[in-house]
Design a protein that fits this description.
Helices cover about 10% and strands about 45% of the residues. The chain is mainly beta. InterPro entries: Plug_dom, Plug_dom_sf, TonB-dep_rcpt-like.
Length: about 230
C-alpha cells in the first residue's frame, strides 16, 4: 500500500468593488487641524473641552505612524471601541457595546447609506477609503441622537478626507497572507467652490489549498480514496 500527495483547491476567490463619491467646499473652508477642536459633536467647530461626550481624534500623522493599511486596523488603536467579526466579510466596528446599527459612520459628515445589514454590518464603510486619503477621524462616544437620529445612540465615527487640490489619480496596493487590495483614488480638482473625489477598492481573497493524500492499492488502479489534511497556504 502506498500514498501519493497532490494539491487540492479548497477555497475561493471573491472580489468586490466599492465606490463612493464625496463633495466638499474647496474654497472658503478652513479644515480643522488641531486635536482641541472637533466638528462632529455639534456639526460646527467646537472646542473638545466644551463637548459633553467623550471625544477622540486620530490625525493623519497618527495614521501614518501606525503603519496600518486599512481603516479598521487604525481604529483598533482607539480607546473603548469594539471590533467584532462579521460573517464572511471581516471586522465590524461599534461604540459602547451597541450594535453596529447604533454606531453612525460618516464620511466628511455625510451618512454611508444601506451598508449595515445582518451579514455585512458596517465593514464596507471602512473598506471604501485608503488611510492615505484620510485627514483625521473624529470619534464621539455617547448618545448623539439629537443631532443625528437613532443611528447615533452609541456614538459617531466621522472620517474626514483630505480635500482635493488638483486633478490626479493615485493607485495603491496592500497585500497580506490571505488577500490583496487595490485602492484607486481620483481627484477632480477644484471647480469653483467645490471639489470632488472618487475612491474605488478592489479586494481579492486568495485561493486556499491543502495537501490531500490518496491511497493507492496495488493492482487496483490509481483511485481508491482520499482524506487527511496536512497544511494549507
Amino acid at each position: 500500500m502506498k500514498y501519493r500527495k497532490f494539491w487540492q483547491n479548497t477555497g475561493f476567490i471573491s472580489a468586490a468593488v466599492l465606490l463612493s463619491m464625496t463633495s466638499s467646499p474647496a474654497a472658503g473652508a478652513t479644515p480643522v487641524q488641531t486635536r482641541d477642536v472637533v466638528v462632529t459633536a455639534s456639526k460646527t467647530a467646537t472646542e473638545v473641552r466644551t463637548v459633553p461626550q467623550a471625544v477622540e481624534v486620530i490625525t493623519a500623522k497618527d495614521i501614518q505612524l501606525s503603519g496600518c493599511n486599512d481603516l479598521r486596523s487604525v481604529l483598533a488603536y482607539a480607546a473603548n471601541l469594539n471590533l467584532s467579526r462579521a460573517v464572511m466579510t471581516g471586522n465590524a466596528v461599534s461604540l459602547r457595546g451597541m450594535n453596529t446599527d447604533h454606531t453612525l459612520i460618516l464620511v466628511d459628515g455625510r451618512r454611508i447609506v444601506g451598508e449595515d445589514t445582518k451579514e455585512t454590518q458596517n465593514v464596507y464603510a471602512f473598506q471604501r477609503l485608503s488611510p492615505n486619503d484620510v485627514a483625521r477621524i473624529e470619534i464621539v462616544r455617547g448618545p448623539s441622537s439629537s443631532l443625528y437620529g437613532s443611528e447615533a445612540i452609541g456614538g459617531v465615527i466621522n472620517i474626514i478626507t483630505k480635500a482635493p487640490q488638483k486633478e490626479g489619480v493615485t493607485v495603491g496596493v496592500n497585500t497580506g497572507t490571505d488577500k490583496t487590495a487595490v485602492f484607486v483614488h481620483a481627484d477632480s480638482g477644484k471647480h469653483g467652490k467645490w471639489s470632488s473625489a472618487v475612491d474605488v477598492r478592489l479586494e481579492q481573497i486568495r485561493k486556499q489549498t491543502r495537501h490531500v493524500y490518496e491511497r493507492v492499492e496495488e493492482g487496483q488502479g490509481d483511485m481508491s480514496g482520499q482524506g487527511g489534511m496536512s497544511g494549507q497556504g
